[in-house]
Specification:
alpha/beta, Rossmann fold, about 120 residues, globular
Length: about 120
């Protein structure tokens, strides 16, 4: 089974049932970080999702989280600095660097990542 990193955007699209993400609903070992999950939960609540439903969605993906190393944090900070005009979130920078270091695709629909290597860009 292949591994794939889910950024916050991808988690939302999987939850919403976006048909463009149908090929990624099964057959993959998902990976994400607590930072992406925090951003996911926050955005669920921000758009009006009830607390219990948001928590349930969060827990559904929390088993896929992996630990983040100090090296990932510093590399993500450098990545964010290099691409500061794109206004990338810390969570997505940490996720992108994690995926790259693990040699797994970074699944996203965030157009800011469209041209980067190691990205599966699905709108």
């Amino acid at each position: 089974m292949s591994s794939i990193f889910l950024d916050t955007y991808a988690i939302f699209e999987l939850i919403k049932g976006n048909p463009n993400y149908a090929d990624y609903k099964q057959g993959f070992q998902y990976i994400t970080t607590i930072f992406n999950l925090t951003e996911f939960y926050y955005n669920l609540r921000r758009i009006g999702t009830k607390k219990e439903e948001a928590k349930e969605c969060f827990l559904k993906f929390s088993d896929f989280r992996i630990s983040v190393t100090a090296e990932v944090i510093t590399d993500a900070g450098e990545f964010k600095l290099q691409h500061k005009k794109k206004k990338l979130s810390y969570a997505d920078c940490i996720g992108y660097v994690t995926a790259k270091q693990l040699h797994v695709p970074f699944l996203t629909g965030d157009s800011a990542f469209e041209k980067f290597e190691n990205v599966l860009f699905i709108k």
